Amino acid sequence: MPEHRTSENRLPPWIKAKMPGGPKYMELKDLMRTKNLHTVCEEAHCPNIGECWERGTATFMILGEICTRACRYCAVTTGKPNELDVFEPIRVAESVKTMKLNYCVITAVNRDDLNDGGATIFADCIRRIRETSPHCKVEVLIPDLQGDWDALKIILDESPDVLNHNIESTRTIFPIVRAKGNYDLSLDLLSKSKSIDNSIVTKSGIIVGMGETTQQLTETMKDLRSVECDLLTIGQYLRPSQKHLKTAKYYTPEEFDELKQIGISLGFKHVASGPLVRSSYHADEQHLSATST
User: Fold this and answer.
1) How far is residue 194's CA from residue 62's CA, in Å, rounded to a whole number?
2) What's the pTM?
3) Which parts of the chain fold into alpha helices (H)?
């Protein structure tokens, strides 16, 4: 693919998102503050926040807003986390019910300070959502749990509709941007999920524009398919601040289409690929693609 580079202060014309501010957006923003909840939509500066919140969907970020890791692409605050809030799942379930969601995503910061990485809180969220909103499908976007497969089983025993874990980048770029992570461990987690419960849809995501090549991206897609990953998202890296990794390249919409076709040819049941695509973008549609075939 030909490279397209531009100043980070002058984004390409195809990277555009509407400024949030509609009535539904303001309603949900007030609800999150009232319930003392956090969303990855806000913490990670997601460009789709206005669109998704106006549709009445959001991704809840549990276990606080402070991460124990410091990935070079991520806008989430790093530091010493606050004490565990065991009542958080109740508030999440209440919010899902209030919002009348048919599909919700639960994600979290890395909590390497916890023995189970927060697995019991994930499981409690799923359980309570199912109790109060039995019609609502639940996707969990989880950290690597430091390879604790007992913790993974705690989550899977609650039968989430989708088990999502983002690999984020290629094998070559991974150690540069995720120093405290491990590429093979991320693959192992997705593989272990299938071995524990093969009926649960698995999903992963890649951020492009951090210095990778098309060949490396193809190899990563092959690696994900080798562990039977069902769904894939591919989106553009946008540098959150001057302290973060520089954007190496802006992919064109045509290049994202090419990456999507590569993924489809490799056997993914659904590939969402585009400049503003994020892991939870139209997650309900992605899940439907995986379960309707």
Assistant:
1) 24
2) 0.85
3) 23-34, 40-43, 49-54, 88-99, 119-132, 149-156, 174-177, 183-196, 214-226, 253-266, 283-291
Q: Give dist(CA 232, CA 192) in Å, integer.
A: 18
Closest CA to 84 of 109, 118, 50, 57: 118
Identify which has the larger pLDDT, 54 or 215: 215
- 43: helix, coil or strand? helix
Average pLDDT, integer, range 257-263: 98
> Quick one: tokens of 210?
């951090």
Contacts of 241 by beta carbon, 8 Å cutoff, 6+ apart: 75
At a CB cut-off of 8 Å and minimum separation 6, what does 95 contact? 31, 32, 35, 37, 60
Distances (CA, A) of 52 to 89, 221, 246: 22, 27, 27
SS3 152: helix
Q: For 53-84, write each residue's pLDDT tens digit.
A: 666 567 888 998 888 877 877 877 778 888 88
